[in-house]
Design a protein that fits this description.
CATH class: Mainly Beta
Distance between the termini: 41 Å
Largest sheet: 6 strands, mixed
CATH superfamily: TolB, C-terminal domain
Oligomer: single chain
Radius of gyration: 17 Å
CATH architecture: 6 Propeller
Helix content: under 10%
Shape: globular
Structural class: mainly beta
Number of helices: 0
Strand content: over 45%
Number of strands: 26
Number of domains: 1
Length: 289
C-alpha cells in the first residue's frame, strides 16, 4: 500500500513465503539470472530465490556478511575474515584473499562498484567500538584496507553518476558520503550525509535508487528511510519487524524493493519482505576479479 502523509511517501511491504533467518542481511539482485541473493550471517548460509519463487541455499562454513555475483560465474562472499568464491553448482568454497582484522572480528556488509571492485567491512563479534575496518577486494585479489577504527561497518552504495560513495558506520549513528574516483577507486574525505538513530536504534544497510535517493535500513526502528540527494527525508517503508537490516532493488525493471530483517520481537522477525518501490533502483554490480 502506498499513501502520502506530511509530504512523505509511505510504503508497507508484504512478507514473502521464504524461510526466516536469524540475521538476514545483504540482499542483492542478479539481473543476469533474475535472482535475489541474501545471507543469514550466524548460520553461514547464502540464500537465493528466483522469479518463480524457487529457493536454494548454500553453507559457507563461516559467518557470512555479504554476497555478490561474480562475473566469472558463481558468487563472491565476504565471510569470516576474508573473501571467498562460492560455486553455486557444487557448493565449493575457495578463499580468494584474507582481510586481516583485529581478533574477534568478522566480515559484514558490502557491495561492488561499477568497475567490479568489492568493498566490504568488518565488525567485532561483541560490537566493541572501533574494532572494525573497511576493506576493498581489488580485481587482482589483493586487499586494500580503507578505514580502521570502525564500529560496525555497514551499508555501502554509489550515486547514479558514481561520483559519490555512501557509507555507514552504525555505531556513529550516521550515513557518510565521500567523493569517489571510479577510475582509481580513490576516496575523498568522509563527511556527514544524514544523522539518525540513538541508543539501540542505528542505521544499517542501504541502497541507492536511479534518482539518487538513498534508502537506509534502521535497525531497531522497524523502518527504511529514503533520503533525497540533499539529505531531505522523503519516504518511509514501515516493517512489522523491529530489526530491519538492509534493502535492495530487484525484479525485471528494478522497481521492486526487497527488505531483509533479523529475528526479534514478534513472529515476523527474520522474514524477507517485498513491495513496489515507486522508483527504479540501480543495478548491482558483479565482482570482476
Amino acid at each position: 500500500m502506498t499513501e502520502h502523509a506530511a509530504d512523505l511517501t509511505i510504503l508497507e511491504p508484504t512478507q514473502t513465503a521464504l524461510p526466516h533467518c536469524e540475521l538476514g542481511e545483504g540482499p542483492v539482485w542478479d539481473d543476469r539470472t533474475q535472482s535475489l541473493y541474501w545471507v543469514d550471517v550466524p548460520a553461514g548460509r547464502v540464500h537465493r530465490t528466483d522469479a518463480a519463487g524457487a529457493h536454494t541455499s548454500w553453507d559457507v562454513g563461516l559467518q557470512v556478511g555479504a554476497v555478490v555475483p561474480a562475473e566469472s560465474g558463481g558468487l563472491c562472499v565476504a565471510a569470516g575474515n576474508g573473501f571467498y568464491a562460492l560455486r553455486t553448482d557444487t557448493g565449493e568454497v575457495t578463499e580468494l584473499a584474507a582481510a586481516p582484522g583485529l581478533p574477534g572480528t568478522r566480515m559484514n556488509d558490502g557491495a561492488c562498484d561499477r568497475t567490479g571492485r568489492f568493498y566490504a567491512g568488518s565488525m567485532d563479534n561483541d560490537e566493541a567500538p572501533g574494532a572494525g575496518a573497511l576493506f576493498r577486494l581489488n580485481l587482482d585479489h589483493t586487499v586494500t584496507k580503507i578505514f580502521t577504527g570502525v564500529g560496525i561497518s555497514n551499508g555501502i552504495g554509489w550515486s547514479p553518476d558514481d561520483r559519490l560513495m555512501y557509507y555507514i558506520d552504525s555505531l556513529a549513528y550516521r550515513v557518510d558520503v565521500l567523493d569517489y574516483d571510479l577510475k582509481s577507486g580513490d576516496l575523498g574525505e568522509r563527511r556527514q550525509f544524514v544523522r539518525l538513530g540513538s541508543g539501540e536504534i542505528v542505521p544499517d544497510g542501504l541502497a541507492v535508487d536511479a534518482e539518487g535517493g538513498v534508502w537506509v535500513a534502521v535497525w531497531g526502528g522497524g523502518v527504511i528511510q529514503r533520503y533525497e540527494p540533499d539529505g531531505k527525508l522523503s519516504g518511509v517503508v514501515r516493517l512489522p519487524a523491529a530489526f530491519v537490516t538492509s534493502c535492495a532493488f530487484g525484479g525485471p525493471e528494478l522497481d521492486q524493493l526487497f527488505v531483509t530483517t533479523a529475528a526479534g520481537p514478534g513472529r515476523l522477525g527474520g522474514a524477507l519482505f517485498t513491495c513496489p518501490a515507486g522508483v527504479k533502483g540501480l543495478p548491482a554490480y558483479r565482482y570482476r576479479g
